Amino acid sequence: MGKRRRTIGMVGLALAVVLVAAACGGNDNTSSGTGGTSGAAQRGGVYRTALSNFDFTQAFDPTAEYLGLAFDFYQALLRNLVSYKHTAGAAGNKLYPDLAQSLDNVVSSDGLKYTFKLKPNIKFGPPVNRAITSKYVEYAFERMNITTLAAGYGTYFYGVVKGMDGKAKDAKPISGIETPDDQTIIFNLTQPTGDFLFRLSMPAAAPIPQEVAKCFNDKAGAYGRYVISSGPYMIQGADKLDISSCKAMKPMSGFDPTKKLVFVRNPSYDQSTDDLRSNHVDGIDIRINSNVDDIFNKVLQGSLDGSLADQPPNTVVRQYLTDPNKKSMLHSNAGDRTWYLFMNLSTPPFDDIHVRKAANFIMNKAGILRAWGGSTFGQIATHIMPPTVINNALGQDFDPYASPNFGGDEAKAKEEMKQSKYDSNKDGVCDSPVCKGLIMINRNRPPWTNSEPVVVESLSKIGVQVKPRELADHYPAVQTVKNQIPIGLDTGWGKDYADANSFATVLFKGTSIIPSNNTNYSLIGVTPSQVSSLGIKLPAGAQIPSVDADIDNCQKIPATQADQRNACWVDLDKKLMTDVVPWIPYLWSNVITTTAPSVTKYDFDQFSGQISLTQIAVNNKQTVSNS
Fold it and tell me: What burial class does residue 242 get, using C-beta atoms within 10 Å of its C-beta: 0-12 exposed, 13-18 middle, 19+ buried?
């Protein structure tokens, strides 16, 4: 997921000591259980939280949205054929049937057909209030197939499910999906796809009522303020939505992208059909507050029950560490995420692999980690896939661009640059005009702004002069291919599901490249025909490598052969780092959350990489109305 995390400032040595296990990257939950109050989780109350910005990539429309935080919200709002128990660690990465009755014998012997029986009488929330049938699941795939909706995760299904290519002009039946009756859906694949069950856990694959969503099929993101619930909670005001016509519909009152997102219980939800979610709280109240210090102070004061997505400032962290009564309310969880600089191979000088390797050698990753706040917030990344995603088969022991204390190696970087066509006098410094004034997209807040001087200084040592452009809304700039942004510091990636392919297909397969909402920022595997349709130009003689065949080979290995499949992804990771070099990975990050004493049960959703909204429990007496 192009999911983001926020951290600010530098934390003290004490925190690094207290959470040293988390810094090693293998910690799942240093402080699970209660938020500081003992006793069993009870039903009721409202989980009150705030964050500095939603940062949605596609306005919260599940067809195209891929922000990790949005995935967290969808776990409370939507149900899929398959899902997770929304808990921390390995247990949170295991698949279970959700809308599906069972996962037994759903796959044909040749791996080309998946057949599911739906549980009966599970309903959409207001105002639809009707049973979810196979046709509504199928309609979700029809929407993914519409070009204008820019379904980034459609790439997991294009060319995999027969009839899906992402080029439809409107919602039309998918030839590879059969719905012989209301309780049966059959997916026919073009090739065996070992992680197909995991792909079905994505929010884009959750059922969608056609009579509502059809009104928003002409513009990406437009459905986001009208999302109809299939899960335990709904957006406040959903019951007042007039769906008699498209013109009659007005945004639900509980969602204003600039102010708030409020969830209330879905009266059509039946807990007896769902053993994956506990749903303790009666409501979830999420507010936008651009003052991060104020958010964490309100958690300390108890007017908020916990933080969400933003990382705590140093002053707040110290209060938790110095007060024995607060230490249990500081939670650190492995995020299954890599933060990185991408380099666009369609734009000079990064079309030259020697420049890309030199950039890896020169980068002061230790300086970036300090800018993030130190080792508490993660472990320096030396390759693309986080160790936790590949069963710890590859860690920091694999570092093709090793340098003393991760501070960068200027000598090795210059030796690499000397081999570049952009270093005419072979002194190890780029002297071509293409190395000057390169736009580097960045976020406009810490820790990315803190990291910026480190990156600028590092690259300048090899003659690559970047010009940072800090943006609040940074995703459109880097995800619109025709912009041909040469380099970006704003990007991170968390797993989409518990298989390493979620660090492969969407990020590096040529067939995944789409004009907008694109996440293959380096354009690995782009073909000449794509270049023309995307409206871009390649440097003369540019040869952009492809790993499509490598990914396909790994995908042929069924999930039942887990060790062999994992080894294949490890080999791909090595190849990407040594033979392709699209990124400068610098951090495998942790997620830090603070809670108030009002939280009687805390848990982390390993799938979404945030606090588990369906498992959290509070003892406050707050209420929230449906409308």
Answer: exposed
Per-residue tokens: 482: 């025709």
In sequence order, which residues have a C-beta less than 8 Å from that of residue 34 and are 6 or more positions away? Answer: 328, 599, 600, 601, 602
pLDDT at 338: 97
Task: With cut-offs at 50, 70 and 90, classify the pLDDT of residue 180.
Answer: very high
CB within 8 Å of 168: residues ≥ 6 apart: 142, 145, 146, 147
The answer to whether residues 67 and 56 touch, using CB atoms and an 8 Å cutoff, is: yes
pLDDT tens, residue by residue, 576-595 = 999 999 999 999 998 989 99
Give yes or no for a contact between 209 and 124, defined as CB atoms under 8 angstroms apart. yes
User: Minimal CA–CA distance to 55: which of 471, 410, 351, 376?
Assistant: 471
Longest alpha-carbon distance in the chain? 73
Give the whole-number percent of the chain exceeding pLDDT 70.
Answer: 93
Spatial distance between the Cα atoms of 600 and 33, rounded to a whole number of angstroms: 8
Cα-to-chain-centroid distance, residue 224: 17
* Phi, psi for 110 (deg, rounded to 5): -90, 0
Non-local CB neighbours of 470 within 8 Å, separated by 6+ positions: 442, 443, 444, 448, 449, 452
For 295, which DSSP code?
Answer: H
* Spatial separation of the C-alpha atoms in residues 221 and 253, rounded to whole Å: 17
- From 198, 114, 162, select the one nearest 502 (Cα to Cα): 198
| Whole-prediction pTM | 0.80
pLDDT of 279 > 70? The answer is: yes
Cα distance between residue 347 and residue 332, in whole Å: 39
Two structure tokens written together for 603: 């848990």
Beta partners for residue 440, in sequence order? 468, 487
How far is 80 from 97, CA to CA, in rounded Å?
8
Give the integer Cα–Cα distance in Å for 127 and 428: 65
Identify whether the C-beta of residue 493 lies closer than 8 Å to the C-beta of residue 501.
no
Element (H, E) at 610: strand 610-611
| Residue owning tokens 């492995």 | 334
36: confidence class by pLDDT, cuts 50, 70, 90: very low
**pLDDT tens digit string along 593-615?**
999 999 999 999 999 999 999 99
